[in-house]
Design goal:
14% of the residues lie in helices and 31% in strands. With 323 residues, it is of the alpha/beta class. The strands form three sheets. Strands 1-2-5-8-11-14-17-20-23-25 form a ten-stranded parallel sheet, with helices on one face. Helix 2 links the parallel strand 1 and strand 2. The longest helix is centred in the N-terminal third of the chain and has 24 residues. It is globular. 41% of the residues are buried.
């Protein structure tokens, strides 16, 4: 009897140690360094060290280096912060573009974020493909995503903000590109960002759905351009109800006086929701197109209130339940 009890205790103790060892696998802080001094050498490998559907937060600390990777943050990863050592020192890069084996726009990303409640801070995401077509640096599909003090580098289609009713926040970021380099259907708020045009073309191409009240809001941003660039539109509607508003932004002389373009479709002039409030700088002089819908002072105030901008509108009742 005594032997059986001792055996049972040994099994229980062994089980406890095994459970403890399993728990130790999942860390709150993960370190990535190419020289082998961290837990992982690549960011892709580090994703394997994050527990799916966890109820705690994880920070992935990334040491300076150029990481040539094509990264997908899966939907089952949430509550993760990717923290770079420095914005210029941590560069995540790739060079896919739409004309490689008929890849198309939406497979060209360097980083794709399907997960929600994800933060990126102090790092660069780049697509350094030559100007041969669409080449996305950052592709987002998740909700409640934050990008703070990041650099998004590319040419055409640098930033794709996917996901109807998805909510994104960009603070103190640098975003550059050539054509339509901020595009998509999500609700995205840009605060104190520097938006840099590398070619005469269009900054935004929103595809905001008709029933989504807010698409893109640029608050206190600065719009600059390369020295030879002098004819840039603020936006053109990728879809009819595109919503884009610039509030208290400093616009360089490269911005065209008319401001907005109808993408060659007069009907979009009646549906698109384009406007600005408090613009300054040589690019704010106009005259703007007559079909722009500039917000009032109160509307502009509402559009800078994140509690209102990020109100969830995606209530869902399954069709099968409607009886």
């Amino acid at each position: 009897m005594k032997t059986r009890i001792l055996t049972l205790l040994a099994v229980i103790i062994a089980g406890c140690f095994a459970a403890s060892a399993a728990d130790d696998k999942w860390k709150h802080d993960i370190y990535v360094a190419q020289d082998g001094s961290g837990d992982y050498r690549t960011i892709t490998e580090a994703l394997e060290g994050i527990r799916a559907y966890m109820d705690y937060t994880v920070t992935v600390h990334i040491a300076n280096g150029t990481y040539k990777e094509k990264i997908v943050i899966p939907a089952w990863l949430t509550n993760v912060t990717f923290e770079g050592e420095s914005p210029e020192g941590v560069v995540i890069t790739n060079d896919d573009h739409a004309n490689i084996d008929n890849m198309g726009t939406f497979r060209t990303y360097t980083v794709k974020v399907d997960g929600s409640d994800i933060t990126f801070r102090n790092l660069t995401i780049e697509n350094n493909a030559p100007q041969l077509g669409q080449a996305v640096a950052l592709h987002t599909e998740g909700d409640r995503l934050t990008f703070q003090n990041c650099r998004l580098l590319g040419n055409q289609d640098t930033l794709f903000t996917g996901g109807k009713n998805a909510r994104l926040y960009f603070g103190d970021c640098y975003i550059e590109g050539t054509t339509d380099f901020i595009f998509g259907p999500a609700t995205a708020y840009f605060k104190d960002c520097l938006i840099h045009s590398k070619r005469n073309s269009y900054v935004t191409a929103a595809s905001t759905p008709e029933d989504v009240p807010v698409g893109y809001v640029f608050d206190s941003c600065k719009l600059t351009a390369a020295p030879d660039v002098d004819k840039v539109y603020l936006g053109r509607p990728w879809r009819p109800y595109a919503h884009t508003v610039f509030i208290n932004c400093d616009m360089g002389s490269h911005i065209r006086p008319e401001g907005w373009h109808n993408w060659g479709d007069k009907s979009k002039e009646t549906t698109s929701r384009y406007g600005e409030y408090g613009s300054k700088g040589d690019g704010a002089k106009g005259p703007r197109v007559t079909w722009a819908k500039n917000p009032t002072k109160q509307q502009a105030a509402d559009l800078t209130d994140l509690n209102k901008v990020f109100t969830c509108t995606n209530t869902w009742i399954p069709t099968a339940a409607k009886k």
